[in-house]
Amino acid sequence: MKKIITTLCLISALAGFSQPTWNPEICMVTVDSATASYVSVIWNKPAVTDIDSFYVYREVTVSVFSKIAAVAYTDSSVYDDIAVNVNTTSYNYKISAIDLSGIEGQQSNASNSIKLNVAFKAGYDSCWWTSFQNFSNPATGLRCVWDSSGAMAAFAPIGSTFSPTWVTWNHMNQSAADSSHYRLEAYVTNSCDPSRAIINTSRSNVKNLASPTMFINDPQQANLLVRAFPNPSNGIFNLEWNGSMQIGKIEIVDVAGQIVQSFIPEKELLKKTVDLSSNAKGFYFVRFHSAKGIISKRIVSME
User: Fold this and answer.
1) Which of these ranges, 70-74, 226-230, 291-295, has the smallest mean pLDDT?
2) What pLDDT shows up at residue 79?
3) In sequence order, what are the residues at sequence separation of 6 or more whose Cβ sits closer than 8 angstroms to the Cβ of residue 282?
4) pLDDT-based confidence at 39, cuts 50/70/90?
5) Average model confidence (pLDDT) for the chain?
6) Which of 24, 35, 114, 286 falls between 20 and 30 A from 104, CA-CA?
7) Residue-range domains of the chain with CATH
8) Which candidate, 302, 295, 303, places its Cα nearest to that of 227?
């Protein structure tokens, strides 16, 4: 089969055929709902048999995109970009398709993540965000959601849906000491099917006035504060944290955003063993809640 494909590719090249005719578009770019710490780029696969893989590009300077990943056609049509800081800026992405001969099609139109900002004004919280640009699957409406418990676990809508052209909104009758978490949701025209779950909402980062979510891009720096090991493991994980973090609660969250375990650690102890061996295998996130913010670490439970 490899010889046949190689021969066909050679014939195609000699015949002067160039780029593939199919050029997939991004269906949605969203901040993950479970930890609000990374960006997922999602597209719908074309129903063809001659795509080998997809390239994912991120904008590194204005209008300059650099390839950051290759995703096989047989994999889920989603790429999780964990090397970004969703609390500092919005990120633009493009994708392209690669055929069985290694020929790359045209890059898609750019789509971006939403970066939300929140600041307290006199008697209200002011929310503003980057405009959501999703060329092939535009938003039909936006809505702010919040979690008034401060636990970042149960977001509920505030008010009604507003125009996708809006870039600011005010939440009235709030206090400066409020510990609520805010998130912006964009409802897109068509649902996205990355082969693991149907998605129809793009989400922003999570912002909180009292205790902002912490994101640590440097693994060595992160390990000085919190650790989860061995990782991957067979479901048994040892958690350790620095005493300066003042950890008040630890949650284990699955990829759907559901809390599967939650506990308050003993103040004298700076470690805890958790058992996920009876849960489904796959990715989970450990959320360390402290007085300084929330640190999230991804763990993998496998056979």
Assistant:
1) 291-295
2) 93
3) 254, 255, 300, 301, 302
4) very high
5) 82
6) 114
7) 116-208 (2.60.40.10), 219-301 (2.60.40.1930)
8) 295
